[in-house]
Each structure stands twice: as structure tokens, then as C-alpha cells.
Design a protein that fits this description.
globular, alpha+beta, nine-stranded mixed beta sheet, binds adenosine-5'-diphosphate, 20 strands, Dna Ligase, domain 1, Rossmann fold, binds magnesium ion, 14 helices, four-stranded parallel beta sheet
């Protein structure tokens, strides 16, 4: 290619990434991918990001976030707030894409993309995905029986049946989601929500749970993969995600088809155009029943698990789609898993692992996940990472939602291996230490 003059700094091509530090730490490869294409990453973070810490990482030349030059922090993720915050970027850069890396930013990232006529999920699909009542309304045929309850109606609320699931409409991380078996439990659960929260009351769908990640271009699903989800629902009334296995083991061809075709139907119905999506389903007597669909990257280690399973990072495909480029992603040749540890109540101290060659990564403190190194398809099982998502001194309590979790292991193995058993083995080699609370 002939050398060309760089375009004037004032209109350099750029990609907006909306995220918080905890997700940036996991997806540093997205930033590297943007920079490698001679695009400027414009990163917008929310109130959950401690700017002092982010600035320390940006100032450390050894840290991948040192690639960031443009960061804005917004006090909330409302569409208006975000649009006001990015106005100078929109004037000074030629914004080519808008990538959402966090549930709170789904709506503003979609709106910005729509307003600038960028490739992406689309403003409407993003808005529907961010609101559980809108989702159930638009996707009624894909879900369980449900009723939506506005705050003023709460005292008269009745679920379609018992057992039921109570769920606030605008949250994430399984926060506030719980099973109720009778009217007494229902009233107690409803009393926990804020005065402005609308709530869904749903039929409890029985059956194993999965997520379907999809890469979508111009409304076509180019690739989809099924991940088995493990929750702690057997131990109580909550549904905290405690593990993921990519690809999901033990599915029949008919079950795989039920999940992938339901997912494609959901995406078509909401008119999702481009990007990576993450939808959650339960398989109930062979039918895929929608829990929810997200117009963003999957959470936890799922992108890293697909990387380990296929040998290819997902970030290049995600950036392709954000730029409207038809992309490719391979099929898995290995199986990968993340499993969270149970923990006791107490103040987190040291974390030790007796797994040879696998150090403990304090991902919140360091703002960085360990790099993913892939293995040959038939290489023996191995634990690749021990991740601590909290900090020494944090209080660990009951794991009632994703934010309450602490330590997890990640690893991979040949497709024939039992990743549930391996996950248990890896997790049992990790010791979570506690210290005396300071007064
Ligand atoms: N109707 C339901 N039946 C059975 N389980 C449900 C139902 N709704 C939610 N859950 C469980 O609760 C979890 C969290 O609910 P979800 O709708 O995904 O909200 P969040 O945005 O908090 O992840 C789901 O992954 C699933 O395990
Ligand atoms: Mg969910």
C-alpha cells in the first residue's frame, strides 16, 4: 500500500467503547484491536469506575490500558448524559463504531450508533434489550408466562402461577431475582425493591440453562455458540451464575437446534442488526425458553472461554462487526470452563493456589486479566487462570448476585473431557483465606 499522509488529527477515525474499568480490564484486547487498525479508542466509563485507578493503569507503559488517550467519565448512563459527554468526540473524530461492553451502556451505545448511522445493534434493539418489560412484551412467544407490575400496582401484584420468579425490570447480575413459592414470599420479595422499580413476575421455568452468544452482521447470524450455565439455585432462592462451559456439553442435535433457532428468532424479532449478542435460555422439555437477551459482549470469562475453545480471540470479530465488516469465527475444537468458588462469610485475605504453573490474578486490583494462551485441541486438561474479582479486605457475604462472588478458576481440556469435574478439581486446589475485620 502506498504511504499516505495521516488524516488531520481533528478528524482521526475512532471507535467509541462504553465500559467500566472492571470490563476494560477483561477486554483489553478490544482496545489493542482498535489501535492496531489505526483507529482511536474513545472510552466512556461510568460512575463505577475509579478514575484515579484507571489513570494509574493508563500511565503504566506495561499496562495495555496505556494505549488509551481519550477517556470520559459520566455520572450516569442515561442517553442524554452520554450524548452530552461525547459531543466533542463526535465533532473532533470521525466516529466509525460504538461498542457496548457493559449492560448499563446498552441504551446510550445503541442510541449513539443510531444517531451517527453507524453499524451496530440498532437503537431500538438496544433499548428493548436493556428493559426486561419491553423484552417480554416484544418477545412474548419466546418466554415464560409473565406479568409486569408498575410500582403503584405492587400491593395487588399476582404472578401467573407458583412457583414464580420475581425480577426487577432494569437490573443485571441476577440482582433482586428470586424464586417465590407463595404469597408471603412474594410480598417479602416485592418489599425489597426501590419505589420506582417496575417488576416482572414470571412462571418459574424448570430445566438446564444456557447462553447463546452470536455474531450478527446485517441481521444474519454468522456464528453462534452455546454455553452451559451453572447457577447456585439448588442451594436457595437465588440464581447467581457460578459457572460457564463453552461449548455446552451433552446436548443432542435437536436441543442445539432448538437453542440456536430460538436465538436467531429472538434477534430477528427485535431487529438486531450487527454485533455480538448474549441471550439466556432454559431448555424445558426440549423447548428453548428465553430468560433474557443482551445486545453486548457476554459477561464473566465467556469471551476468554470461546477463545480457549476455538483457538481464536473474539475481539477482532467484535470490532469487525462494529465497523460493519462481515467477519468469521471458527468452531470450537476444545472445551473451556469457568467455575466460581463457594466462600464463607468473612473478610477476604490471601488467596493461594496449589495448581502448578497457575498464579493467582487479582484482576480488580491490577485492572488486568491474564493473557489467554491457547493449547492444541488434544493437549491435556489445564487450569489457565485463578481470578480474584474482589480485593483483599472486602467483606464476602452470601452469593446472592454476581457482585457477591469472589474467586473463580478458568481452564480448558479436549472436547471429550468432563469440565464440571475438572472445574471442581481446580477450584478445590484454591484456598480462600480470611482475615480478622479491622474495627
Ligand atoms: N422465569 C424464570 N424461570 C427460571 N429462572 C429464571 C427466570 N427468570 C430468571 N431466572 C433465573 O434468574 C437469572 C437472572 O435473571 P435474568 O433475567 O437473566 O436477569 P439478570 O439481568 O439479572 O441476569 C437467570 O439467568 C435464570 O437463572
Ligand atoms: Mg441474565
Amino acid at each position: 500500500m502506498p504511504a499516505t499522509e495521516p488524516p488531520p488529527v481533528s478528524r482521526r477515525p475512532a471507535v467509541v467503547v462504553m465500559s467500566d474499568l472492571v470490563v476494560l480490564a477483561r477486554q483489553t484486547r478490544l482496545i489493542e484491536e482498535i489501535v492496531s487498525r489505526n483507529l482511536v479508542p474513545l472510552v466512556l466509563v461510568g460512575p463505577d469506575t475509579p478514575m484515579d485507578r484507571l489513570r494509574v493503569h493508563m500511565a503504566d507503559p506495561a499496562h495495555p490500558l496505556s494505549l488509551l488517550t481519550e477517556v470520559i467519565r459520566v455520572p450516569d448512563a442515561a442517553v442524554d448524559t452520554v450524548l452530552c459527554a461525547v459531543q466533542d468526540w463526535v465533532r473532533e473524530y470521525e466516529v466509525k463504531g460504538s461498542v457496548c461492553c457493559g449492560e448499563v451502556f446498552v441504551d446510550p451505545a445503541g442510541a449513539l450508533g443510531e444517531l451517527l448511522r453507524l453499524p451496530g445493534p440498532g437503537g431500538w434493539a438496544s433499548r428493548v434489550c436493556r428493559d426486561k418489560v419491553m423484552q417480554r412484551t416484544a418477545l412474548n412467544a419466546f418466554g415464560p408466562r409473565w406479568r409486569a407490575v408498575a410500582p403503584a400496582e405492587r400491593s395487588r401484584a399476582e404472578p401467573p402461577c407458583y412457583p414464580a420468579v420475581v425480577k426487577p425490570a432494569g437490573r443485571m447480575y441476577s440482582s433482586g431475582v428470586c424464586r417465590v413459592d407463595d404469597a408471603g414470599q412474594l410480598r417479602a420479595a416485592l418489599g425489597q425493591f426501590g419505589p420506582e422499580e417496575s417488576v416482572l413476575l414470571e412462571e418459574l421455568v424448570e430445566g438446564p440453562e444456557f447462553s447463546v452468544e452470536a455474531l450478527v452482521h446485517d441481521g444474519d447470524v454468522l456464528w453462534s455458540g452455546i454455553t452451559a450455565k451453572r447457577t447456585n439455585e439448588d442451594g436457595g432462592r437465588f440464581f447467581t451464575e457460578m459457572g460457564h462451559i463453552c461449548p455446552a456439553p451433552g446436548l443432542t442435535a435437536a436441543e442445539e437446534a432448538a437453542l440456536t433457532s430460538a436465538n436467531a428468532g429472538v434477534l430477528t424479532k427485535i431487529g438486531l442488526r450487527d454485533g455480538i449478542t448474549h441471550a439466556e435460555f432454559r431448555l424445558s422439555r426440549g423447548t428453548a425458553v428465553l430468560m433474557e437477551v443482551a445486545a453486548r459482549l457476554p459477561g464473566d470469562a465467556i469471551t476468554a472461554l470461546w477463545h480457549l475453545a476455538t483457538g481464536a480471540p473474539m475481539e477482532p470479530a467484535i470490532i469487525d462487526l462494529a465497523l460493519g465488516v462481515k467477519t468469521r469465527y471458527p468452531q470450537p475444537t476444545r472445551r473451556a470452563a469457568q467455575r466460581y468458588a463457594d466462600h464463607e462469610s468473612g473478610v477476604l485475605g490471601e488467596v493461594h493456589s496449589t495448581l502448578e504453573g497457575t498464579g493467582v490474578s487479582w484482576i480488580k486490583r491490577d485492572g488486568l486479566w491474564p493473557a489467554t494462551e491457547v493449547a492444541d485441541a488434544d493437549a491435556p486438561p489445564r487450569c489457565t487462570a485463578v481470578l480474584v474479582a474482589r480485593e483483599s479486605g472486602d467483606f464476602l457475604g452470601a452469593q446472592v448476585d454476581s457482585g457477591a462472588r469472589s474467586v473463580s478458576v478458568v481452564g480448558d481440556a479436549p472436547l471429550s473431557a468432563d469440565l464440571d469435574a475438572l472445574g471442581r478439581e481446580w477450584v478445590s486446589a484454591v484456598r480462600v483465606g480470611y482475615r480478622t475485620a479491622s474495627r
